[in-house]
Amino acid sequence: PFGASCAASPYGDFSRVPDRESCTVDVALPNMACSEACPIKVRSALSKVAGVQQVDVDYESRSATVEAVYPACSSDGFEEMMENLYARGYRARVVSARSGFTQPVP
What does the radius of gyration of the chain's CA atoms come to, in whole angstroms? Predict the structure, then answer.
């Protein structure tokens, strides 16, 4: 009805996200409003996505860094991460994504 395709995601266009063996994703969480419970909820929402290995949440910068492997490192994985955050009330967006991990994952 609004000129959007039925296949368009309400969370962003992840159609060009390449499938990667491993990735690091930076997520902005501009409306994260609590310093104790919110990071736990964000970590929980992101950790439910298959392939997510580690989630670091920084309340001060209202951001999260996700280190993951496939299938989280795919367009469907990105979609699921955003969907899980939106379902918990966070208006998240992917700021950047790159291949590999920032730090070694235990």
Answer: 13
As a whole number of angstroms, the distance between CA 22 and CA 36 comes to: 29
Is 9's pLDDT higher than 90?
no
Write the burial class of residue 35 (CB in 10 Å: 0-12 exposed, 13-18 middle, 19+ buried): exposed
The pairing of beta strand 93-99 with beta strand 22-28 = antiparallel
Q: List % helix, strand, coil for the chain (3-state, nearest 5).
A: 25, 25, 50
Interval 28-73: pLDDT, tens: 999 999 999 999 999 999 999 999 999 999 999 999 999 999 999 9
Region of poorest pLDDT, from 9-18, 65-74, 80-89, 96-105 = 96-105
> What CA–CA distance (Å, rounded) separates 56 from 79?
19
pTM: 0.87
